[in-house]
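ok so i was messing around last nite and threw this chain in just to see what happens. nothing serious, just curious
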Amino acid sequence: MKIVQLSDLHLTRPEAELFGSSPLARLELAIDDILGQHADADFCLLTGDLADAGGDDAYAALAAALRRLPMPCHLLPGNHDQRAALRRHFPHLPGANDDFIQTALATPAGRFLLLDTLEAGKPLGSYCAQRRAWLAEQIAASDGAPLWLAMHHPPFAVGIPTMDQYALRDGETFRELIAPYRPRIRHLFLGHLHRPIGGSWHGIPFSCTSSPNHQVALDMTTTGADVPGCREPAGYAVILIDAEQVVVHHRQLFNGETCFRL
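result:
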């Protein structure tokens, strides 16, 4: 399987800029690149913060942009999103209005579980008892298949204090739920962090990818409410999956530079 992961689009009104660039123009650049290089992907996974302020204009623009892609697109919300507004433009999403947006996908590689960690009005994440019950039911129904988890907020710290304060607040409870199934969990896909980050957490491999628009600085000393940003290259991830391995490539989106042969 091949999966394309887009995350932290932060779309605004189509004509508006955010931190010196147009999130919509940057998304269109990413889609151009996907069409040119990875149109054969099995699906596109969007791991939250699709809009910057949950506005209808942003979601309408997102829906129009994603129609250019030939593969299915599977969305989950981040802390900047509004569930009801997201559903108005993506009516196929599960639930209604402000219900949690959680999706189970049966694939040849196993069962993908897309989790909703949004706690309305707060930048940190939450995974409450109702959502945990849904996850437990989906794992029970997976019949021993490999499991793949995707969520916006990481359930652990990554060493960037200004982002770690906005991680999943009940990460330990979440870990206790999934711990019995750790041998079956092949990967955890994250958003929120605006950086290409990878590693393992209690033996579970994880990865996060860049935003197409703006990045979080690798600043391990600053504390406080304000998150340092930076102008590192924007991008998205390309994930290759087979029975033996998972490979995560980070595709950087520059400003027109060309490739050359080494």
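not much to say yet. Residues 100 and 116 are 6 Å apart (CA to CA).
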